[in-house]
Amino acid sequence: MKPFVYDLTWEGWQQWMKENGLPSFRAGQIFDWLYVKRVESFEAMTNLPKALREKLEEEFQFVTLKEIAQQKSKDGTVKFLFELGDKHAIETVIMKHSYGNSVCVTTQVGCRIGCTFCASTLGGLKRNLAPGEIVAQIVKAQQLLDAVGERVSSIVIMGIGEPFENYDAMMTFLRIMTHNKGLNIGQRHITVSTSGIVPHIYRFADEETQICLAISIHAPNDALRSKLMPVNRRYPFADLIEACKYYVNKTGRRLTFEYALMGGVNDQPEHAEELAQVLQEIPLCHVNLIPVNHVVERKFVRTPREDIFAFQRILEKHKINTTIRREQGSDIAAACGQLRAKHLETSKR
User: Which residues hold [4Fe-4S] cluster (predicted)?
Assistant: First the structure.
């Protein structure tokens, strides 16, 4: 299969020009057509010689993102279900904030991590996305926003899949997104979320970027975390905390811990106290409490509102900076994997 036109970074296009005996400035023209003008065909790149356009057509392809469904929430959240060229489906979400538009992207078709409360793992992992398939999600979102004179201001890599299990494609995507000749998204306006793939936390720390990192922790100890997140059996809790310390010490950046509260499972005062003791070892951290999303196929229920605030108060008593995630798109099942799971079930029928 031909590579996608969005697979190449700025440097990749420069190298391609060199290998094909073409002037390097053509790379800048292509980047401009792809990410500034956002065209969807080589023929539209009118300042390129016809021979070059034909060569691009011969060697590359545009990503196929066929819209299967689009749902819009009353809070402005827009969720897309896209069909890829091989008929697999992925989700992309645009979230409206007071500070701008954030886009949540998917990095894999399905997920093999197996978190017991998440819809993304239903059906397992089918394949990794190519860099260009991740990039195309942002381009599609920006094209929608173009119609209302707005832009993508931030990105969260929190959609379907485990980004660190598709590490190289994710990093290529990040380099394309942050390049000043393209969409020019500021590094500090991008967050990568991982379930805790320990070796890649070290690797990501050594990348020396300004991109934010969030860890899905969801439990304060090994035993409970292993029940909720099978990945903990592969990368035990103590090893994860050591990797987090390394990240903070190496980068000097604050680390976010995502903690999904599940009624009667991980939301009791003793859980909050134990979590506080663990996180006091990490000087720069923040906890984002997430009321668990109801997934029909899962048994978990939402923590009562007053218990969520009580959990937050305990963490803050121990000087752990804590926020409660604002719900968005709850009326359209905007949580990751829910729309895809519904589509898969319908397809089976």
Answer: 111, 115, 118
